[in-house]
Design brief:
Helix content: 25-40%
Structural class: alpha/beta
Largest sheet: 10 strands, mixed
CATH superfamily of the largest domain: Alanine racemase
Order of helices and strands: EHEHEHEHEHEHEHEHEHEEEEEEEHEE
Strand content: 15-25%
CATH class of the largest domain: Alpha Beta
CATH architecture of the largest domain: Alpha-Beta Barrel
CATH topology of the largest domain: TIM Barrel
Number of strands: 18
Number of helices: 10
Radius of gyration: 23 Å
Length: about 425
């Protein structure tokens, strides 16, 4: 089934069981409204205006810094969002696996970075099939060891693959994720890749996010020092003539500290340099983890109107069993909790046709599979059974993967569109 023939129906969580099936592009014509009770609870929703703002704002940010943008698709895994990112000017898309990349390629991406090591034969077979099916497709994946190079060479020999695969050399941080730990190790591996007929070295990649701890000045110092070292390695590889493409890619993540990353994606080299920013969470932003980082970015840069939270999960108060405690019908199956618990941000009292800010002091203190524990001061505003509460999240990636579709809402709660999600 293609995206053009995809039909949404009651087999998908969050879709009204009593509603007739329809395609995603027909959702906006159904006349549904969140506050009128047309959608079941819990329901994950996207603010259509904030989503569009974030999409265009980050694209403009990258362009204004003289770099290109390849947003990380693993955040949403939504073909509709991928197409919008590409239409807005994204140079390409980033993914974590070959399978994820196939979703982006079906959505129209023709430049793809797999920001991860590829090591399995089935994944190399899949990558080769994708490349053979699309003559205009370029895919770069990460390499960080001679052992990985040997696996690729053995696969290419067994498959009689004559065309080299594109790769980027990954630079890592000691004690953290993948990547070469030293400049000496990186230069030796770059030479090994250069000498291999199975690979073509296109540039250098790194992920700086593990160094960022939401410290205003500490993040800038730690990430800048790391990216300076990455730039030095890039220049060393260039002087040794190890890059094998017309342009050199220099790429970093940039979701948490994109203001520090962007200027570091430049280096004096002998070929054209393509700085590639790979921010992913920007598209939905959040109300917690990344919101904290954004406050520091604004302080460092003076930016005013930047990213806006676009994703929330609405849940209904289903029980108030004792003073100070209400249970919402939303849990770990519905909303992210890996970085911090969700927080109440909006309230639509039972029967109300509009929402308002959630009362101060309301908080979610625990989640079960399908329940959220909402704590409140019994002497203050008290939730009632049938009230609806919007929960803001930290880390949008782990909310998107709990849903197979999401409605897009206007500021009045009207459903104006939909996206589908493929995890």
């Amino acid at each position: 089934m293609t995206q053009d023939t995809l039909v949404l129906d009651g087999s998908r969580k969050g879709y009204p069981l009593a509603a007739a099936p329809c395609s995603p592009d027909q959702i906006g014509a159904q006349g549904w409204n969140l506050h009128r009770g047309d959608l079941p609870y819990p329901i994950a929703v996207l603010d259509a205006e904030a989503l569009e703002h974030n999409l265009r704002w980050m694209q403009a940010f990258a362009q204004s810094r003289g770099i290109v943008f390849a947003p990380h698709g693993k955040t949403t895994m939504s073909p509709q969002i991928f197409r919008r990112q590409l239409d807005a000017g994204a140079w390409g898309l980033t993914f974590a696996t070959v399978w994820q990349a196939s979703v982006g390629i079906r959505a129209g991406a023709r430049r793809v970075i797999i920001a991860n090591q590829v090591v399995a034969d089935a994944d190399f077979d899949g990558l080769a099939a994708l490349l053979d099916a699309h003559a205009d497709l370029r895919v770069w994946f990460l390499v960080d060891s001679a052992a990985q190079v040997e696996r690729i060479e053995h696969w290419a020999q067994r498959r009689d693959r004559q065309t080299p695969l594109d790769c980027l050399l990954e630079i890592g941080v000691s004690g953290q994720r993948t990547g070469c730990r030293t400049g000496q190790q990186a230069l030796a591996l770059a030479q090994r890749i250069h000498d291999s007929s199975a690979l073509r070295l296109g540039g250098i990649e790194c992920y700086e996010g593990g160094l960022a701890t939401c410290d205003l000045h500490g993040d800038q110092a730690a990430v800048t020092a790391f990216l300076d070292a990455v730039r030095d390695i890039t220049q060393d590889c260039d002087r040794a003539g190890l890059f094998q493409d017309e342009a050199i890619i220099l790429s970093a993540g940039g979701s948490a500290v994109f203001d520090v990353v962007a200027p570091a994606l430049r280096a004096a080299v002998s070929k054209p340099l393509r700085g590639v920013l790979r921010s992913g969470c920007y598209i939905a932003h959040d109300h917690g983890f990344y919101a904290g980082f954004l406050r520091h970015i604004k302080t460092r840069t003076g930016l005013d109107d930047s990213l806006r939270p676009a994703l929330s999960v609405w849940a209904m108060v289903q029980s108030v069993p004792e003073p100070g405690l209400a249970l919402l019908g939303c849990g770990k199956r519905d909303i992210s909790f890996d970085l911090s618990l969700p927080q109440p941000i909006r309230l639509a009292p039972c029967g109300a046709s509009a929402d308002q800010p959630a009362p101060q002091g309301w908080s979610v203190t625990a989640l079960n599979d399908h329940h959220a524990y909402l704590r409140f001061d019994p002497a203050g505003p008290t939730p009632a059974v049938g009230d609806r509460v919007a929960l803001g999240i930290s880390h949008p990636c782990t909310t998107f993967d709990k849903w197979s579709w999401m409605p897009l809402l206007s500021s009045q709660g009207d459903v104006v569109g939909a996206i589908t999600i493929e995890f």
